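Notes to self, J domain-containing protein:
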Amino acid sequence: IGAALSRGGKTRAVTLAVHQAAIAAKVCSGQHDAVIKMCRELISSGIADAEVHEKLGDALLALERLQEALRAFDQAYRLIAEWQVLSSWRLYQKRQQVRAQVDAKRTGRQGGGRDGAGGGGERARAEQAADQTCSEHGLRGDDYTVLGVSRFSCSRKSLKSAFRKASLKYHPDKYTGAKECAEMHFKRLSSAHDRLLTVCT
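result:
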């Protein structure tokens, strides 16, 4: 990796793309340790982007290394571009979910691992807080951008039309990609639509 980096930006991009393809192959075959090693090599080389940090977090999460996974997701979230709204939403959800697990484990250890008033109650509260924060969080890239409507001439009619068009693309029953991805996108669109209904006339 180091030799390739010295040849300029274009080579850096090619090097990153090649390694990301190799990482994707390891992800598909469930080789989490190999993914972690490859991602960390890219990070050490200084060319890792948000996707590399997210892949690292996914691999660490699969191995239940929650604290490390959370740090990786945090870094990925910091690196994500402003316009990548759906990616930002996905990463935000991951961070909140892992943080809730970390908090629940910490509480479980403090409470002796009980599921009642100790660990279980705290876990439920942590998950509820994460859900509430998710719904209230203002994503980088606003609701108007997500739905493709004008901030200055938004009407309920144009809003509903835009939502209908966007939701057809990401509806879980029609989306050709991963079901989880479709559900995440559809939820984001629905949330944006519901919020804008209160301000568009």
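- The chain has a mean pLDDT of 76.
- The radius of gyration is 20 Å.
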